[in-house]
Amino acid sequence: MYPYIQITFHELSGERLKHNETYKVIQTYLSANSSQRARKLKAEVVKDSQTPLVLSMDDNQEIVDEFNGVKVWWSANHITSQSQSFSYYPASNEKRFLTLTFHKMHRDLITTS
């Protein structure tokens, strides 16, 4: 039996596909911490920021992190939909998400923090 638990945080959520604030907070945290550990980075230009160029973990990358002494893994991923939509407001074909993986013995610590 697989001893790990995964929690997925989607960039967009709900019927109207609003930006998920939790995703943004995690992305900011990972941008600050992953640029030193990830092998592949992506660069984004941020207007009206003290740091005009922000580096973050690229898609299909994973980094090891630690939370309260517990080893966790973060990965950045995306899924590209092949379906065609004929809508006045077409939905994005790319869905981004972050995955947090940790050992099941630490479930309470991770999920209640």
From TrEMBL:
Gene Ontology molecular function: hydrolase activity
Q: Where is the AAA-type ATPase N-terminal domain?
A: 2-76
Pfam families under this entry?
AAA_assoc
**What keywords are assigned to this protein?**
Hydrolase
Please give the name of this protein.
Mitochondrial chaperone BCS1
- Per the UniProt record, the source organism is Trifolium pratense
